[in-house]
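Re-running the complex after MR caught last week's input typo. The corrected sequence lines follow. Everything else is unchanged.
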Amino acid sequence: MTVRLDLASRERVRRPRRSVTTMQAHDLLALVIVLLAVIPVLYLVWRAAEGGERTLTTLMHPRTGQLLLRSVGLAAAVAGTSVVVALPLAFLTERVAVPGRRWIGVLVALPLAVPSYLTAYAVVAAFGPRGALASLLDRWVGSFRLPEVYGFFGAWLTLTLVTYPYSYLAVRAALRGLDPAFEEVARTLGTGRWIRFWRVTVPLLGPAVMSGMLLAALYTLSDFGAIAILRYPTLTYSVYNQYRLSFDRSAAAGLALLLVSVAVMLALAAREWQRRVAFYRTVGVRRPQAALRLRWWGWLLVLASSVFPTLALGLPVGMALYWFARARAIGEVLPSVGEPLVNTLWVGLLAGAVTVAAAFPVSRSVVRGRRRLATMLDVPLWIAYGLPGIVLALALVSVSVRFAPWLYQTIPLLIFGYTLRFLSEAVGTLRGTLVQQNPRLEEAARTLGMRPWQVWVKVQLPLTVPGLVNAYAAVFLTTVKELPVTLLLSPIDFRTLSTTVWNATADAFWSHAALPALLLLGVGVAPMGLLGWWQERAEGRSGIQ
Amino acid sequence: MSGAPLVRLAGVWKWYADGARPAVRDLWLEVTRHELLAILGPSGCGKTTTLRLIAGLERPDEGVIEIGGCIVADGHRFLPPEERGVGLVFQDYALFPHLTVEENIAFGLWRLSRGERKRRVDELLSLLWLEEYRSRYPHQLSGGQQQRVAIARALAPYPAVLLLDEPFANLDAELRHRMREELRRLLREVGVTVVLVTHDRDEALALADRVAVMLDGTIVQVDSPERVYHEPRTREIAKLLGQANFVPARIWGSVGRSDLGAFALDGVSTVPKEIELLIRPRDVILEPHPQGIAVVVDRRFVGAETIYRVRLRCGITVETSQPPSVDLAIGERVEVRCNRGRLAAFVGSDRIGLAELLDGVRHVSAEHSAMD
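Corrected-run output:
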């Protein structure tokens, strides 16, 4: 007995050594980058704590509760409608023999690339007072009062149009990954089509639906552009106002923290449901599902469900074209968009490079590091993911004003802001690529006589390039359409396409926003369409095999 | 030729990352030049870790590793994998997906000149019958072809020792057989020293010059395949290597008696009263006999042979494989003989020596009947 105890304690004393392929410098760098990403949150915590009593009073004020309720209510409403819109679309493009359904699928997902403030602009420019519909009605029907577009209804409609692609993509992917064997098993057990649908297919889609809804809710909660244009005062907007208007920054920090904590909870819940999606997915070979044939009521359904995608894409494009054409027709002189376009492009390209460079060591450590390190990196990344852009921007403004005034309203700070904003998404993309890389490849190269740096150049880099390009493109596209960070952190008189649209919309100069809006759509929507088309084609090819 | 071993592990320990238990403990192993040594053990016994320790992908926590007379790892020094000159074939082959077959094979030859590199690659392509696939990418190859590329890549830089990690685990049964034969031919042709890790006993027995049995992080027996199979050092090893029957026996003076016949113990210092004899299913011969000592209790047809389970007089049920010519019915009485001269004798879980069957074949004689 004692002998055995001795042996056990002897074994415990020994310290294990690390495997030779892990590098500690990398991991340290990754930790530093991730800590930088949570600086805004840490600052807010410190600031709110500094306020002490006053922060608490603000948080306990009935108005705060009202704001929170409004934000959460809007998020819930948008999440609900976006699923209602997305589910039939996903079924139609995945399971029903609609001609050209793959290409329709690409189109349906495209509104993801339309920034919310652009859709809001289109909604107001179309349905608002002095908008397109109002002026047309004015001409043909005479004086006619349209329902109010500002407020809850407008925000709800706009954000549903922008966020339904999240649910659509999640449900479509789940439907694609669903093993037909499940439904076939149900069939052999003698269940009818409806029972099968409700008891097998729908429960299996549950996690995908949940994660889609949570992403839509997160987007709504963090959104600043649309609710500001549509004048629906939610928590996000009041954080912005508090910062701009009042001297009491601690109270604003308290409100911001409240917003951040709800957002982070949503982000973590979304992550949890995404894990379950992966759990439900079929591993290995799966046979394609037979497509359903449509009857007359099926075509009605197609027609009904195509309303939202048509609006989501057609409204911004149509309104921008309409106001542009109108300005040309009446000979209005439009401000030049050359400078904003150039600014947008080079800032986007630079931000992409910096963000990807920062994301690479982080994703490498998350994938290859030990489990404890991966968790240490993962949690701050999800906090950063849930951090609304407006909160991030405001916190960076305060930090720089207070600690580094020479940095305030400079390009480096703007780029830093973009990097923090899109770091976690870039890490997500790169991680997907790195996870697929077999760690044995590195080891194989080492046994074949390569030094670690040679392995890096000859094996890892070539295999990582596609992921780097993807991440770069994603960061570039999101930077181009980013509003709050650009608005608050740019140098004075530094105009980009997004700030131009914003300023013109704020002053109701619809025609001034038209051309930059079209350019934004071109920069954002066209690459995404191409990417989707390309992916679908690849999928179609692999399906034939 | 012989003399100093090519690879030597002495008292090697390796703990898991969590430090809770050792993956490899107090491991001693010597691999001689030009031999094929198979490390055989159940999954999780530390075989792959042993291979990775030799390759330099893991650093031992204690002990010494030598390759070609040079210390590559001990308490002070640690030679990284790129300086050890070992070839490693991974279980999943780990072919570089962005390189063609040719480029994969040439990967370890980057120190050579262009012409020399091409010559070596061509040599390996023809040796492994891969010429027609030279410009294909790994995903365009079948499992067997991928494995051949992985072997060619590992052999290309003339490694001192070739390490194979479960080389046939990812192949289907038929291909596995063919590749095994091919590998035997190839390794004989190349004349390289090989350490192969497997959990498949047939693979180990068919391929290896010597088999090292690994259990629970350490090597428990190193011997020729025949000896490991018929004379395992412990009961656990016996079971790992195949279906094993243990038949009880009793010792009177210098002679032992069992249902398999009388025997003399060989190389046993202190003679216990009761022992058990290990007999493999193929070594049992059954003959129908109305006064036989055993009864057939079960038969199972498996194709090339029939598995009979018979109950001996001592109450033990023994599993036997019989050729198709033997046809017995359940309940039939049979005579049991053994077609081996020597059987391993066990006391408890350890082998104490060998039992030399005296008459080789047990006859039903008056003497035996009288004995009961």
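None of the earlier attempt is carried over here. The radius of gyration of chain A is 26 Å. Chain A touches chain B at residues 11-12, 14-21, 370, 438, 440-441, 443-451, 458-459, 462-463 (CB under 8 Å).
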